[in-house]
Amino acid sequence: MYLSKALILGAAFLSGALANEEPTCQPTELMLYDFVVVGGGTAGAAAAAELARNLPDTTVLLLDQGKDFSDKPIVMNNDEFVNAAESPYCEHKFSTEVALAGNFGADRNIYTCVSKILGGASSLNYGGWYRVPEFDLDDWVEATGDDAWSYDNLLPYFRRLEAVDRADGSTPNPDRGYDGLIPVRHDNISVVHYTTGMIPAVERYLGVPVGDQDSNNRYQDAIGSLQESRVAGGCWYDEDGNQLGCAANLRNGSSYNAFIRDPQRQGELPNLHILEGAKVVQLYDFMPDNTDGPMTIEYVYKSYRYYVQAGREVLLSAGSWANPKIALLSGIGNKDDLAEVGIESKIDLPGVGRGLKDHGVLWMTAMLNNIQLTNFSDPNLGFDPSTFSGVNNPLPGLLAGRNTINAFFKSNETLEFPDMEFMTGLSPTGPGRTALMIIRLYQNKDTSGKAGGFLKLRSDDPSEEMDTSRNWYADEESIAPMLASLKTVLEMVQTGMAFSAPMILEPNGFTTDFTDDEALKAYIRSSVVSEMHLQCSMKMGTESDPMAVVDSELKVIGSNGRLRVADTSAFPTEVRAHPMAMAMVTGMRAATLITESYQASGDGNSTSTVGDGVDGAVTEDSDSEGTKDDEAGATNAASGARQSGSECAFAVAATAAATTCAFAAIAG
Fold first, then answer.
1. Better pLDDT: 440 or 461
2. 3-state SS string over 537-605?
3. How far is 311 from 598, CA to CA, in rounded Å?
C-alpha cells in the first residue's frame, strides 16, 4: 500500500500560531524524491499512481492541499454535489467579473469551487462522464503538431479507464471500455415513461437523432442518457480494506479512489508517498542551466513553509485555477505582469493564466406532463423509482438517478460540429406535486473566438486572491449561440410535447418576454453560472504560438525540460465535453511521457535520500531555534536555500541565517 498520511506526517503538531510547540522538522518521509506531483486532483492522482506503478524502483511524492475524504458520503454520492458549495471540501473562489469585464450586470460574480480533496473535482462533481469528441482532438493535433493527441491514439487510455455497464442493453462498442477503472453508467432512455414525449421533441427542435443512444460516441451525434461515473449501489472502505458504510448510489468514479485507494489495488504502491494539507506556493531550479540537479518545491503545511526536492521531474497538476498562480509566483508568465507585482521574470510566457475557458450553463425548470410525486425519499441517496407515478403505472429505470436526457447540438445549423449541450434532470418537489424537470443548457464551445478570460496576480503574496475574468458575452457575436439555443428550448417547452407549459423559474416564475431578444440577453447575462469546467489557462502548443505554455510533451517551454503541466489547464483548445475523463487521460499520458523519458535516459538509479526528520522528529544536531548557520551545508544557488549537514532539508532562502529544518513561520 502507498505510505499513508499517518506514516508520512508522524507525530501531529499544531502550528506556532496555535500552540507553543515546534513544528515537525520535515513532514514528508524523504527529503529528496525522484518525482514530485503537485496536486492530487483528477489528473494528478492518476499521474502519480501511474508513475509509481510504471517505475517501482523510484519514489513519487504527491502534494495536495486537500485531504482524503473518500470515507465520506459526499465523495461516493453524485447527488450530494449540490451541497458542495457550502462544504469544507471547496476553496471558494469568486471571479471579479464586474470590475474587469463589466458584462454581467450589477453585483455579478461567478462562483468556482477549487477542490480541497484528494481526487479533486472527480471526487466532488456529479460524475458526468464524456470523452472529448474526435473533432476536438483533431484541433489538438493541429495546435500541438503532435498526432499522439489524436482520438485514435488516445483510445487505449479511454478504454483502459472505462467500465461501461451497458444497462441500456446495447451491443459492445469497440471504442468503449468494459473492464476498466471507472464505472460508467449508461441507461436506456427508451424505457423511461416520461421521456416518451421528450425524445421526439429533442429530435425535432435540436436536430439530434436518437441514433445508438450513446451521446458519448466519437461524433456526439445521438440522444442518450447522461453517462455517469458511478454504480447503482455498493460500499466504501478504509485504507485497510475494512468496510465503512454503504449507499444506494455508490460514487467511486473519483480518480483518487480508482487509481490509488481501490481496495482491490491496495498494496501496489509502496513507493508513492502522499502529503495531505500541503499547499504548494512556489517552484525553484527549473531553468535550463539546471540540467540534472534537483528542483525545489516550496509548500505551506499547517501554517509553516517547507521545502522538498525532486531529483528528476516536477509535474504541476494543481488545476486550471492554481497552476497559473504557482507558475506566476515562481516567475513564469508575462514579464510585464510579473514586474507590476515585483516578481523577477524567469521565463517570459504571456499565456500563463490567459486564454482561460469555462463552460457556462443556464438552469431552467419546467413541469412534466401527467407525472406526480407520490412521496420523496432521502435526497442524498437519489430518487427511488417507486416515488413517482405516471398516468398508469410507476416509472422505471432512470429515475433512480438525477439526470435523464443528454444531447449535444448546434446553436446554428451552419456549424460543422455541436457547440451546445442539452441536459435534463428531475427536481425535488414533494408528495402530490407535479414533477419538475430541470433543464440545463451548456455552452461548450465559444465559436465566436471572442471569449477567453484570465487569471492575474494582484501581488506577490501567495495568500492574496487573483484577479479573474471569463469574459463571457462581451459582445453580440459571443452571446448569439446561447441566445439562439435558449429561444429554441423555450419554443420546445411551449409545444407541450414533453412539458406542461409555461416554463417556470422558481420561485417567481419565468417572466421574461420570449419575443424580446434584449430581455433574453439580459436574462442570460444575469443567470448564467459556471459549470466549473475550467481549462486552457496554461495551454499546450508549439513554440511558434506566443500563448503556448507547454509543448506537446507537456514540458514548460523555456524550462530545463523537467517541469511539466498535466491537467485541464494544459488543454490547447476548449473541449466540447465534460472534461473529467480527458483530465484523467492527460494525467495518464503525462505518466507515460515521464516514464519513457526516464527509461530512455538509461539511468536506473533513484535519486531519493531518506531524511532524519521522519515521524516529526527533529534531529539532534538541528537548531530548534532556527538560527544556527551550518557551514557544512552546500548552497543551492538557484533557490538560495541552504542544505544543512543534518540532512533535515533546506534552509529558508529569505532568512538571514540558514536553519537546519525546512520550515519558516508565516506571519499571522
1. 461
2. CCCECCCCCCCCCECCCCEECCCCCCEEECCHHHCCCCCCCCCHHHHHHHHHHHHHHHHHHHHHHCCCC
3. 12
pLDDT band, very low/low/confident/very high, at 118 (cuts 50, 70, 90): confident
Query: Structural domains in the chain?
Result: 32-163+255-358+453-472+537-603 (3.50.50.60), 187-226+360-443+475-527 (3.30.410.40), 624-668 (no CATH)
| pLDDT confidence of residue 558 | 98
**175 near 217, Cβ under 8 Å?**
yes
Place of cell 446554428: 412
Encode pLDDT of 304-357 as tens digits.
999 999 999 999 999 999 999 999 999 999 999 999 999 999 999 999 999 999
Give the type of residue at 184.
Answer: V
Type of residue found at 476: E
- Residue 73's pLDDT is what? 54
The CA distance from 41 to 252, in Å, is: 14
Q: What distance lies between CA 110 and its chain's CA centroid?
A: 17
Cell 409545444, residue? 495
Q: What is the per-residue pLDDT across 196-206, written as a single tens digit (0 to 9) for each?
A: 567 788 888 99
What residues are annotated to the active site? Answer: 533, 578
Among residues 379, 372, 578, 355, the alpha carbon closest in space to that of 470 is found at: 355
Q: Which residue has the higher pLDDT, 634 or 428?
A: 428
Please enumerate in sequence order all residues whose Cβ is within 8 A of that of 484, keeping only pairs 6 or more positions apart, or say none. 411, 412
* Higher per-residue pLDDT: 130 or 430: 130
Q: Where are the beta strands (DSSP E) in 428-510?
A: 434-443, 453-456, 467-469, 499-504
Can you tell me the mean pLDDT for 372-384?
35
Is 86 in contact with 94 (CB distance < 8 Å)? no
Question: For position 604, what pLDDT does the model report?
Answer: 64
Residue 257 is classified by DSSP as I
17 within 8 A of 40, measured Cβ to Cβ? no
Q: For residue 289, how many other CB atoms are within 10 A of its CB?
A: 9
The DSSP element (H or E) to which 486 belongs, if any, is helix 476-494
**Bond from prior residue into 156 cis (ω within 30 degrees of 0):** no
pTM of the predicted protein model: 0.82
What was the pLDDT predicted at 440? 80
- Using CB atoms within 10 A of its CB, is residue 205 exposed (0-12), middle (13-18) or buried (19+)? middle
pLDDT value at residue 537: 96
191 assigned ligand-binding residue: no
Residue closest to 318 by CA, chosen among 583, 60, 30, 49: 583
| Residues with Cβ within 8 Å of residue 289, at least 6 apart in sequence | 560, 638
CA distance 223 to 201: 11
Q: Are 223 and 215 in contact (CB under 8 A)?
A: yes
d(CA 169, CA 178): 13
How many C-beta atoms lie closer than 10 Å to residue 437's C-beta?
A: 23
